[in-house]
Batch of 3 targets.
Target 1
Amino acid sequence: MLLESRAVYEKYSAPLGIGWMVNPAFHYGPSVDGYEYSRWGTYHRADHLGLGVDRTDSGTGYVRQYHEPNASMYNDPGKCPQELLLFFHHLPYTFLLPSGKTLIQHIYDSHFEGAQAVLDMQKAWDEMEGEVDAEVFLRVKDRFERQRINAFEWRDQVNSYFYRKSGIPDEAGREIF
């Protein structure tokens, strides 16, 4: 469970290097625009056409701080590692990823998958009752419940935000507010 936890958190909070969409000051919980309009605001730059920060040669030029071949790799959305895609590129919601999914569908899917993965970990932990110290079991069970609440909050706020920005519905027909 511990080995999976970082990837699960990333799925429901910041897929594709989208950025740090947390509440300012205490950095806990989702706030999609929390830092977006502050002096630190360089996190998603979403508009009605797409999202991500253009840090390429034609954008901020940030990519030039890297040596070759990394600079060229990060500069090209077709070669940029997927986990850094929106950190380096502002792309349309309809941009096709190697998976065949659009950018917006990947965002929807990853947030739903991350929330489901928390439920799966929660269930796996519940099956450990009686196998670990009772106090430890209850403490971890409580933390999983808090994570479940957090994952659902992230899923709902982020998906709703990008649905309202893009106007593109979830292909799976899941509820997005």
Note: The chain is about 45% helix and 0% strand.
Target 2
Amino acid sequence: MAPRTHTPRTFTRRTLLTAALAMGAAAPLAACGKNSPGASGDGLRFAWWGADARANITQKVIAAYGEGHPTTQIRGEPTDWSAYWDKLATNVAGNNAPDIIQMDGIYLREYCDRGALLDLASVPGLDTGAINPTLLETGRVDGTLYAVPVGSASPTMALNPTLLNQAGLKTPSDTTWSWDDFIELGAEVTRASGGAVHGVAPGFDTNSLIIWARQHGQDLYNADGRIALTADVLASFWDLLLKLISAGAAPPAATIMENAAMTLNQNPLSTAKSAFAPVYDTNLTAYQQALGSDLTLLRMPGESQAEQPGTYYKASMFWVVSARTHDPAGAVAFVNYLANDTGAGSLMLTERGIPVNSEVLAAIEGKLQPADRKAVAFNQSVADLAKTASPLGAAGSSALTELLSRYGSDVMFGTRQPTQAAPALLAELTQALNR
């Protein structure tokens, strides 16, 4: 079971992008790699999602850039996550896309395949020399760079050591523990607490499945963005979830579904109702603040027994440029500043993840809070495992989020067997990719 992040909505705005292509609104979107000039305007528009704290920090970054580039105006357009993607798709379909866009990996290929993004190598000025090369690869589609990774996150099994100590148990060796060890430990925590605490708060989302697939020598998608996962590995993923429940390590299906809808502050890890939970290392500070005590970060179970490591570096988000920007050079110059300038990094710190630029990370490490330093140390400690990127899915792959929730619920409640649910899910996902 791997970490939860924010839950993407099914990509219904895909229809908006399709409509834009079909109707040829104003001027057809450029194919990826070919810039198409749009209407000029005052300055460059920069769109991102996030809470008020991120907006305040980003406005300071924009102001700092303006001091060194007085002839370039950057206008910030912050939006919360829930509204961001509908707004972005509407703007892209209406030929009114922001120039610089904060992009999530689950939608990257979708926007690129629909001609909305600029080939960043087509405009001089972007330096990628200090960026983690494994993560940089995740910004390429069909060999061409359309996105610059912003931050790095790696999956970890978070442990509440207080709950483990109360159960009379010791912290496992995360370089050797297996999934069977994990199930047993979780069940012992539950038993020791009399059911007041469950050992494990499992994940059963896309991020969880990536870990499981990689440990079984597969990935969700191949280099072309098509399905690479087989039904037997998907079925075994749900078998693990059922084992956790039947052993008492995880709570009943109804509770798992309720927990999946909770905010970070409400979930079992944050409220000391579970000893173990999969998270990303970059979420450590938020979880510890919610819990009010320290957590321990462990490598995922099963790594030493796996066909290949499941651990990987995930780009927290990307910087991309609209194919319609009226000022490609100016937009790329600003992306270069965001990606490489130590002053910008000193303002953002880990707000958008652990910086993927080694020079920026070195410059800010002394300014980080203890929890952030712990996350950075863990992130660096799994470099021996996170050597390959997980390929992005093609347009339509964002449907997997809803499919995993629906079919996973069926499996947990016993209305479908894993061997029935797996081929059915893959068939639906194939249809989504072929639309």
Note: The two ends are 30 Å apart (CA to CA).
Target 3
Amino acid sequence: MTKQPKLPPVFISHGSPMLAIDAGASIPAWIALAEALPRPRAVLAVSAHWTTTSPAVSAAATPETVHDFYGFPPALYDIRYPAPGALFLVDEVAELVPGIGVDEQRGLDHGAWMPLRWMYPQANVPVIQLAVMPNQSPEFHFRLGQQIAPLLSTGTLILASGGLVHNLRDLVFDAPENSAKPYAREFCDWFVDRLESRDLPALLDYRRQAPNAALAHPTEEHLLPVFVALGAAGATYTLRTVYQGFTLGTLAMDCFAFDAN
């Protein structure tokens, strides 16, 4: 692997697929983040929308744009994000994570292409995906992040994409922007505080320690990407808040970069 300017791992709460065509309040922050970062040679997207039972990486040379959602306006299904794959990065990930599965057919789901469409609109940065495993613990994902951390020094952007609070069963469709149900805000405040203080034991045990954890995340797949970013960040990171806010009452849209010290 060739040394390049080191990039911070990033966590983005990607929100509704509608943000691809109807830019919300978080989009300018995503764009500004991409402009402020050194241009990556490739992106490793850790998306909540690709779940497996064991570690896996995608390896399509020309990844398809996957529209993995239902009931949205036709214009959303017309979107294509034609970024090339990054087969060289597949090999590097496989060196760091021995025995990892390789999926040569997997395209880019909206957890990957939707934020990347705003961050790198020319679709000229190669992209592959890393799966999350809901059958595995936050600590397992943290260790996975530690394994892939050397990629940051090669100009690879580790883009973890999920949601800091994600309860689709409890959305409030007429909620004013940045209003939130009390349980969602309490969970979000607790989690951000623990990230800022680098309280790793509490974060890894969030399911028992965080207020309203089961309400904030009825299922865990949208929070697991943050643990990959956290593992890649190293023990002395500084949390940079790129955006904070809520939409639809129960979707936290927080975005963070884990800057190295």
Note: The CA atoms of residues 118 and 232 lie 24 Å apart.
